[in-house]
Amino acid sequence: DPLASALPRPWAQRCNDTKLLTDSVSLVRLLGGWKGGGGDVATGPNCALNRTLLYERVDPVVDACLSPIIVLDNVPWCFAPNGTASTYGNSAGPDDVEAYGLFLIDVMEALRTRYPAAATWYYRVGTEPNYGGHWTSGFDAYARVYDKAVAAV
C-alpha cells in the first residue's frame, strides 16, 4: 500500500490493519471560494497559500488511511474579488490566471512535500463549466484555468 508506506509509524501499521469500505474520498472546494465568502486557503493581498489551513483539511483524510481525490474547483475569493456567489460559492474565474497558476503550483508543492503519496493521488479540475452554479466566466476562461491546473499537477 503506497499510502501506508509513506506514513510514519504508527500510522502505517494502523492503515495496514484497517479494513474500510473505500480507499479514497473527494475533497471538494478544498481551496476555498465557499459560499458566504469564506474558506480560502489563499489569504492576504497577494493571495498567499495558508499551508496550515490546507494541511488541516487534508490531514484527517490521510490520517484515516484514505487517499484524497483533490478537486481543484472553486477559485479562492482573493483571486476573483468581484466573483459571483452562486449555488456552490464563487463561480467566477481568477482575474489573473497567471498568478492563479503560480498559486496552484505552490499548492501542489505543499502537498507533495508533506505527503509523499500525493504523487499517486487523483486530481480533478472542477467540472460543469456550462452550469452557472459552478462556473460563470465562460468556456475560454475555464480552459485557461484547466490548463494551469494540469500544468501544476
Give the gist of this structure.
This protein is α/β, with parallel strands linked by helices and 153 residues long. Helix content is 37%, strand content 14%. Strand 2 and strand 3 form a beta hairpin.
What would you note in describing this structure?
The protein is α/β, with parallel strands linked by helices and 153 residues long. It contains five helices and seven strands, in the order ααβββαβββαβα. The protein has helices at 2-6, 11-17, 51-63, 97-114, 139-152, and strands spanning 24-27, 42-43, 48-49, 67-72, 85-86, 89-90, 122-125. The strands form three sheets. It has a three-stranded parallel β-sheet, with helices on one face. A two-stranded antiparallel ribbon has the order 2-3. A hairpin with a 2-residue loop joins β5 and β6 (89-90). It is globular. The two termini are 22 Å apart. The mean pLDDT is 87.
Order of helices and strands: HHEEEHEEEHEH
The total count of strands amounts to: 7
Biggest beta sheet attributes = 3 strands, parallel
- The largest beta-sheet arranges its strands as 1-4-7
Tell me the span between the first and last alpha carbons.
Answer: 22 Å
Average per-residue pLDDT, rounded, comes to 87
Into which percentage range does the β-strand content fall?
A: 5-15%
Rough outline: globular
Helix run count: 5
Alpha-carbon Rg, integer: 16 Å
User: Which regions are unreliable across 5 or more consecutive residues at pLDDT < 50?
Assistant: none
